[in-house]
């Protein structure tokens, strides 16, 4: 006796239901990180720079790049105002010489232009020389500092040499500045800081001339240069 057509369809439907149950039946957490040798889960937390970018490896690149010194809090008037900055308490490595920079304290007391960039960013390559031109034009009226937001510090130094840009900058491969000011996850980003360390404006856009930078500095920081 052969099964009826209805019976064959019922059997097929039962097979499909069983397959679906097997597919969604709970299993162990297959996506959990593999345990390390000590039994703890491994972590993929971001780092400010690669392990191979040690002082010895970076020394010749730093000498060639010849960056300007990072700003320092020493002798800065109204340094206490840095407590109002979202960057307060954040320290970074100075790309130019490897020293430690408390960024909020170093920028306190003067309006600042903080530029976020990365070595692989095309628009950043066009913008950095523009920012250097603006910095030369602004002189002591405004501090201009760069923040490299990729762990590859060696490539940052090589690119700055290629661009012939000598602006002071800090290494922030983990993107702490970007997170602290609530900047979008794009590059380049320019942050305008008031003298008290508070954020006047976050600008996720490239600048193509020193005049464009001067215009936003005048508009949001009230400094005409």
What does this structure look like?
Helices cover 36% and strands 14% of the residues. The protein is an alpha/beta fold and 225 residues long. It has one domain: Glutaredoxin (3-Layer(aba) Sandwich), CATH 3.40.30. A seven-stranded mixed β-sheet has the order 2-1-5-4-3-6-7. Helix 2 runs parallel beside helix 5 (153-163) and helix 4 crosses helix 7 (210-221). The chain is globular, with a radius of gyration of 26 Å. Residues 15-44 have low confidence and may be disordered.
Return the structural class: alpha/beta
In total, how many beta strands? Answer: 7
CATH architecture: 3-Layer(aba) Sandwich
How far apart, in Å, are the first and last alpha carbons? 97 Å
The H-level CATH homologous superfamily, spelled out, is Glutaredoxin
Largest sheet: 7 strands, mixed
Q: With helices defined by DSSP (H or I, 4 residues minimum), what is the helix count?
A: 7
Tell me, what's the shape?
globular
* Number of discrete domains: 1
Q: Unreliable stretches, pLDDT < 50, 5 or more residues?
A: 15-44
Please state roughly what percent of the residues sit in beta strands, choosing from under 5%, 5-15%, 15-25%, 25-35%, 35-45% or over 45%.
Answer: 5-15%
CATH topology: Glutaredoxin
Mean pLDDT: 84
State the share of residues found in helices, binned by percent: 25-40%
Main-sheet strand order equals: 2-1-5-4-3-6-7
Rg of Cα set: 26 Å
Order of helices and strands: HHEEHEHEHEHEEH
CATH class category name: Alpha Beta
